[in-house]
Amino acid sequence: METWPFWLAGLGIGAFVPLFALTTGKALGISSGYSEMCALARPAGAERWKLWFALGLPLGGLLATVLSSGGAQVTTSSSDMAQALHLDGAAQLALLALGGGLIGYGARTAGGCTSGHSIVGLAQGAKSSLIATLGFMVGGFAATWIAVLLAGGVQ
What are phi and psi of 87, to 5 degrees? Predict the structure, then answer.
């Protein structure tokens, strides 16, 4: 399957974020869309658009896959990292749940998620977003380094 070029997505996001901010006066981020999903029981308010944004991301990815390959296929294969760490299905689910919880906690603690800070916050010139982005990068590099070491090093 041929993938779309990464730079096309970068140009699209880079053009959409400031255009969205200029036309609506609102910042774009996914963690607030997730909070709207968690609050579906309350009456819809002015921020309900964030729910549709959050739902549109995976649906847009699915649509792009179907359009580029002529169909979608579900796979249950394990990731290379899970295989290298010899994790079974239950351990993989536990690891994914733990990772999701840590990401949610980090987004809540940092006042937004990685995309919100790194794309929108940096574009707005927020010093807090620069600090958060540097923390994300350092943490990501450290976690990758540890995971590679646990998996037996680079082959």
Answer: -100, 135
